[in-house]
Task: structure prediction
Amino acid sequence: MKLKAEQLTKIYGSGESRVTALDKATLEVNNNDFISIMGPSGSGKSTLLHLLSGLDRPTSGKLSYDGQDIYTFSDKKLSLFRRQRIGFIFQQFNLLPVLTARENIIMPLLLDHRQPDEAYLKKLSKLLDIDSRLSHLPSELSGGQQQRTAIARALIAQPDIIFADEPTGNLDSKNGGEVMDMLIDIWRELGKSLVIITHDSRIAGLAERQFVIVDGVLTEVNAK
Ligand code: ADP
Ligand code: MG
Result:
């Protein structure tokens, strides 16, 4: 797996309200990378992650994934690609409230008429310590359990790469710490690439490659 973003730029609005949310971001993600991105609020972090994961398209720039030019895909092909190859973890969990934890987790597969691999689902639920909570609705789960359910959903299709946009931003420090530890365990155990946005310099420091973003400009600050 190799993801290569070249000169990604995103401009919102025009005239007086024109905002350059992302300014020529260039970044490569390889197998097994653990990358952190830090930056103040409004600096373009979510914009970058949405572009890297194909949730959005840039104003200009290119994204290739194993040599495939992603933004040339139709919307339909892009969402299929995303569901099968990319895991995305949101700050707000984004679970569907009327579905149980298990149903939320397997939803990305059902959309493609695929059945879950029960052994893998079991392994994920154990790793994330939600195996006894699978029949519960999100409203019956703690914030930490909800986010761990969302992590299982991001992983169920066995993506190569996981993007996490401030995954602990809605959790207290204890639950946030647990979620981070589990994410890192999963990164180690399952051999995925992990790209994480965080405000927490301790978490950023755990990553092998660290980036900062200020006013839409992305810079690599340290390579271990
Ligand atoms: P961060 O995630 O670092 O807080 P964002 O990527 O969400 O920052 O936003 C970067 C900049 O782009 C901000 O100035 C924000 O107001 C602007 N922005 C983000 N999304 C939109 C949008 N849909 N329309 C207009 N401006 C936007
Ligand atoms: Mg954001």
Q: What stands out?
A: The mean pLDDT is 95. The CA atoms of residues 55 and 82 lie 8 Å apart.
